Amino acid sequence: MDSSIIRKKGSGRLKQRRSKSKSSKFLTILSVACAALFLLALALGVKVAMNGREVTDLTVLQRKQAQKLAILEPKLAEMEEEIAALVQSRLPHLTALGFDKVLPVDKKYVKNIAFTLAGKGGKKRYEYKMVMDNRSLVSVHPHVQIIFFDKVGIQVGMSELGVDTDGMPTLDVLERGEIRSHVSQVKLTDNTDPQYFAVRIKTGF
């Protein structure tokens, strides 16, 4: 047989082996890639399922909390009404403190009072404006205490008109027929929000 023919046959077989080797490597790489994609998809599926379960659990918990809150809110409102009724019966001279509205007092020369809530965040500031009207036949030296109470009737602060910082009487006089307003800030002893107030007019010093 001609040597050139033998060389051609050998060369053809070598090419076939190389082609088969390349195909085998490609299939191996393709299999590994498919396996990796499968594992990745499986992991993502498990994670999505876990997240979905967490979302479901949170939704159920939120619904339960909302149901409890819906049950507790009326009870809380009822308890607050009962506390308010008890405070009013025990301390009938107290008046519920409201903001941005004129509250009548009508005690001697004190006509009315209005409270304002100012500030922001935890730095709340309580202010008031008191209107005095002297309808008597003589001049008076105003001496007024505005006492503040919390929701259970415990005193939490006081503001006083007619005395200085040392507690000594001022020379301020409210003339006969005079109408005057006094603006000041509520002095609280702690961070408790006042719920009630009482106006006490002092006589003499």
C-alpha Rg, in Å?
43 Å
Proportion of strand residues = 25-35%
Overall SS class: alpha+beta
Spatial arrangement of strands, main beta sheet = 1-8-5-6
SSE pattern? HEEEEEEEE
* Largest beta-sheet details: 4 strands, antiparallel
Distance between the termini: 144 Å
Low-confidence stretches: none
Keywords:
205 residues, alpha+beta, four-stranded antiparallel sheet, 1 helix, 27% strand, rod-shaped
Give an overview of the whole structure.
With 205 residues, the chain is α+β, with helices and mostly antiparallel strands. Helix content is 43%, strand content 27%. The chain has one helix spanning 3-90, and strands at residues 95-96, 102-107, 110-120, 123-133, 144-149, 155-161, 179-185, 196-201. A four-stranded antiparallel β-sheet has the order 1-8-5-6, with no helix packed on it. A four-stranded antiparallel β-sheet has the order 2-3-4-7, with no helix packed on it. The chain is rod-shaped, with a radius of gyration of 43 Å. The N and C termini lie far apart (144 Å). The relative contact order is 0.11. The model has no long low-confidence stretch (mean pLDDT 79).
